């Protein structure tokens, strides 16, 4: 019955929203609900601009294309590192929020992930970990196809060594 929204609404500025149906709204009285990041004039103006940009059909089509490029690049990487006790697994996610599963024995996975994140960072790519064994990529929607390919090149170049070191 209640949906909360936050981070992307104002392009990174602090803004949140709560979506509620009339049956819930009619129960709330002044003072029942407060907000830390409610709609101030600057963040609301930015949110309006963000909405205008992401609602453009061409922008959304480009984001979809970039997501497909990222998925294809990660799939190639996974295929080229698919054997051995430490290896790449499935590509997960949708659009530009993707993950590459890393498979390793339980006693090694923490070290493998720590090493992988450190090596990608040293090579110029900021990535995250999701769960205990997924390399998480969350690039901005405005990333270029060339930047996606460069990020994939970095992952591919460090992954083999990290998996071998296991």
Provide a short characterization of the protein structure.
This protein is of the alpha+beta class and 166 residues long. The protein is built from five helices and six strands.
Explain the overall architecture:
The chain contains five helices and six strands. The protein is an alpha+beta fold. The strands form two sheets. The protein has a four-stranded antiparallel sheet. Strands 1-2 form a two-stranded antiparallel ribbon. It is elongated.
Structural class by sheet pairing and helices: alpha+beta
Helix and strand run: EEHHHEEHEEH
Overall body shape: elongated
- Extract low-pLDDT stretches: none
Mean pLDDT: 93
Helices and strands in order:
Elements: E1 3-5, E2 17-19, H1 22-25, H2 41-54, H3 57-80, E3 87-94, E4 97-103, H4 106-122, E5 128-130, E6 134-137, H5 145-165
Antiparallel strand pairs: 1-2, 3-4, 4-6, 5-6
Which features would summarize this protein structure in a list?
single chain; 166 residues; alpha+beta; 4-stranded antiparallel beta sheet; elongated
